[in-house]
Amino acid sequence: MADSSTNGLTSLARALSQPSLDLIEVNDVSPPRSLQLHPGRRRKLSSCNSIENADLITSPCAAEARVLVINTGGTIGMTLHDDVLAPQANAFVKSLRKLPIVHDETYAQQTRMYEYYGSDTLVLPKPAPHPDLQFHGLSKQNKRIVYTILEYNPLLDSSNMTTDDWGRIGKDIERNYESYDGFVILHGTDTMAYTASALSFMCEHLGKPIILTGSQVPIYEMRNDGRDNLLGALLIAGQFVIPEVCLYFYNKLYRGNRVTKVDAGSFNAFSSPNLPPLATAEVDIAINWDTVWRANTTAKFQVKTELNRNVGLLRLFPGITASTVKAFLQPPMEGVVLETYGSGNAPDNRPDLLEQLKKATDAGVIIINCTQCLRGSVSTSYATGKVLIEAGLIAGGDMTPEAALSKLSYVLAKKELDLEAKKKMMAENLRGEMIADLAGAKLCLSDSRFIQVIAKSLSVSCKEELEAIRDALTPTLACAAAKIGDIEALKALKEMGSNLCLGDYDGRTPLHVAACEGHLKMVQYLLSHGASVHAKDRYGDTPLCNAVRFRRKEVVKLLRKTGAHFSRHELEEAGTEMCSLAANGDMDGLEIWSLAGADLNQPGYDGQTAIQVSGVIQFKATPPAL
Ligand SMILES: NC(=O)C[C@H](N)C(=O)O
């Protein structure tokens, strides 16, 4: 073994090899094959000095957002066969490639995009500059949206979908989670509300947008809604960190577990009766950030594919017999959504019916009370509603039947929970699918004295202007509080209705600032109050990368635990930065990069790795266990 005791990197290797890096002696210092740069990429990087190539080489990754499009089927990609519409395999990418409004072939060729991302990748054209859009983020980041299409085989009419298909979608998202900024799922409209609801529960601790969309008329037709729906979904998924499973249709972005299909013959096919849209795409895309749901956890994203299929929907109607209800509630039934009248009412003059319901809940069947009405919530204001509570039913609030059913399926599959815990979970608001407690609604903006005083001094009167002032001031104030670690100030800002995820003029969020400063408690507070670990500032930097650069080890550990990872442009720069640390024998610096998930074998700008720069040793890297 080479004597490397005099080399600073040796101690580094020792430090890092305990407990999780294997130090091995090598003569051949070329990077492992799998880590070598793609030839095209290498050419691109090595041409950094050439001015005529400058346009191509200015870190395209930093200026690109990547979206994975999972094409499951539906009308959007259907063609006529024997006079009926059916999905057409292997046609979607080819046709989109010919449409300049959804694909820029010149950019793809100039940047050798297909070499890096594969032939099923397309790129949206650059949005034309528009003065109004600057205020709403569409062109603020000025990013190219590069999207890769993963087509399922077979493509399905959504009426043919099962819970297994939901599991497949979930697993594909999980597998690709770190490589993309957002996900779009092309899906038939008929059961889209069920899939959106199910995915919202299956995706635990979600930090990135997942947007379902489709169309009423195939994209191949001259007049169709598919193009607009696809474009809108891509633009939102690529540019905004909305950490929800959403549904985009007819210029509106909805929370996925709040929608229901209401029209079979209109482009405006969906409604979200109890929650306003999360975003509207009119002249500009306006996000209703106050409504966006956040996981508020420090746990990593994961997809739970176990679902209980012994669930069902039972709709009350006048004259329903007790024997029908009894038959429906027999084993193996474990969970039922009872669709009741009005605000959750059932006949209180039908002891035979109520007896069957009571027997079932006593036997451990969970029954959720949801209204048949499109809008509104269940309550116990009528005697006819109270009898259902007495029969052991759980109030479903303002949940859609689609959401209630998929929630049951998800909760009942949790083997680690007993019946009481499952019932409790069903009554709780898990993903913004219901308003469980109207009294607990948050303080409204007008309660904020601070903003009111400023508004008064500026002679502001209307709500919109008041909100504009709040949104302009509070991100900067929140960043200032994050800098000095003042959690109380952040709490006060939150109580005013401010969104702690919003960035300042440079897109820097309080989490970026707290990560730089190493305020662990502040980072913890922000993460448990909706801050996104995937937020990127104007320069494409994440809070994780900030914590690494300022050597905040504990913060790095917490961010990693929450699922933080480097962006592609940070990963590209990591190789070069680690080489320079290696050249300076900076072990601590290298260790923190490794802790944050960087690969010490990652080549720098000239193809050399940190290991090679040391000239002595090579690490077989496995990131330290967190
Ligand atoms: N518009 C549509 O996508 C309807 C189609 N039957 C489906 O759900 O797959």
UniProtKB/TrEMBL annotation:
Q: Where is the signal peptide?
A: none
Name the residues that bind substrate: 158, 189-190
Domain L-asparaginase N-terminal positions: 66-290
Matching SMART domains, A to Z?
ANK (SM00248), Asparaginase (SM00870)
Question: Known SUPFAM superfamilies for this protein?
Answer: Ankyrin repeat, Glutaminase/Asparaginase
Alphabetized UniProt keyword annotations: ANK repeat, Hydrolase, Repeat
Which PANTHER family does the record associate with it? Answer: 60 KDA LYSOPHOSPHOLIPASE, L-ASPARAGINASE
| UniProt-recorded name of the protein | asparaginase
Species: Oreochromis niloticus (Nile tilapia)
